[in-house]
Amino acid sequence: MDYTQQVQQAVERRNGGEPEFLQAVTEVLESVKPVIERHKEYQDAAILERITEPERQIMFRVPWQDDKGDIQVNRGFRVQFNSAIGPYKGGLRFHPTVYLGIVKFLGFEQVFKNALTTLPLGGGKGGCDFDPKGKSDNEVMRFCQSFMTELQRHIGQDTDVPAGDIGVGGREIGYMYGQYKRLNNEFTGILTGKGLKWGGSLVRTEATGYGLTYIVEEMLKDTGSAIEGKTVAMSGSGNVAIYAVEKVHQLGGKVVTLSDSSGWIHDPEGIKLDLVQDIKEVKRGRIKEYADEVKSATYTEVGSGANVWSVPCDIAMPNATQNELNGDDAKTLIKNDVKAVGEGANMPCTPEAVEAFIEAKTLFSPAKAANAGGVATSGLEMSQNSMRMSWTFEETDAKLKGIMQSIHVQCKEAAEEYGCPGNYVAGANIAGFIKVADSMLAQGLV
To answer: The domain containing residue 95 runs over which residues?
Structure first.
């Protein structure tokens, strides 16, 4: 048994019942085997054992009162995974499915994603099993204030800077920031994703969707192609999907599918973005309402057999949640001659799907590269906060595009150097790992 296998077994023994975390660790350990073989110093310093164990895991009670006067109790988390190259950085997820294993998986992925951005950011993640859906603004405010009352003990602009994720948008960030400011008596860049009038950055809202589209465009350029004229299938209809649609349209592509937890729509004439934004961002409605208003669109409920990946497309962008695109879905896409796949959500493709894309030599950008635009622009927001200034939309978008182009180059070159050209999964893992591992070596046994 080699060193990486020994580490894998140890991680499995210590983290049983956390399949998402183990899935993420397995992918990274398999990718970095050739790096470990070439650099014995990583094994001597037990880098793999240390990099797969969070520096700190925090769990806490979140009591709050609903509009009926009843007391509710949720469980909050913050996993501060690795700070070798900068303060912990990663979002907060509010969703009923949140538990420690999900947060650890997201935090572990964030370590390597942040390393790829070229910015000095460590990796962390947090959240709560609270569901903001169906809650009034006052209930969300009371919950967020209770959540931040505990979280504020563990974060700081040079220690840990959270952001949003699923279930955490501008409303939630605002309530949490207000409570942090009240408790600490300071106006600092402690959270990213803030409102533009109080420290936020232009392009942050659009960043993940834009960044995803930029990196897919870069992959296609390597083959002499482009998004222009291509048909794109997407899942999701939240922030990532909405702004990926916007950027795809700007680059001349056509998006034909979107989804939410209830079902999905197919509009062969192209998704009408303004209508989706009205339904999702203004009315907070369901994607089914799109088909009610657009004659060319059809709606299919979850569980009806087919899904968005059954629609023939040139490009696929899974933007909803982890493990939403399985091996059979990948085979369907490959059969329909998909050219490129970019992960907008965190680990939305199962290991079987990823393997299928790689074997078919389909251009495939994993989440830690493809959806790094969000955290990259969060890092730009931190820079603007520190300098007490704001950049224009065009300046920030240009910086974001440059970062995504750099990520593409890092992944491509690392894959080529370690004998797997064209494998962006291995390239992303290797490039991110080496940056973090070298920093850990330099800082000694801590």
So the answer is: 3-187
Q: What is the pLDDT of residue 337?
A: 97
Eight-class DSSP state of 91? E
Q: How confident is the model at residue 284 (pLDDT cuts 50, 70, 90)?
A: confident
Q: Is the alpha carbon torsion for 142, 106, 256, 400 positive or negative?
A: positive
Determine contact, residues 129/103, Cβ cutoff 8 Å: no
- 134: which DSSP letter? T
Tokens 């920031």, residue located: 177
CA distance 336 to 295: 25
331 is catalytic: no
373-387 vs 393-417: helix axis angle to the nearest 10? 130
* Burial annotation 262-280 (CB, 10 A radius, 16+ → b, else e): ebbbbbeebbbbeebbebb
Q: Domain holding 27: CATH number?
A: 3.40.50.10860
- 125, 230, 247, 412: the catalytic one is 125
State how many domains the chain has: 2
pLDDT confidence bin for 305, thresholds 50/70/90 = confident
Are 216 and 341 in a shared domain? yes
CA distance 224 to 358: 19
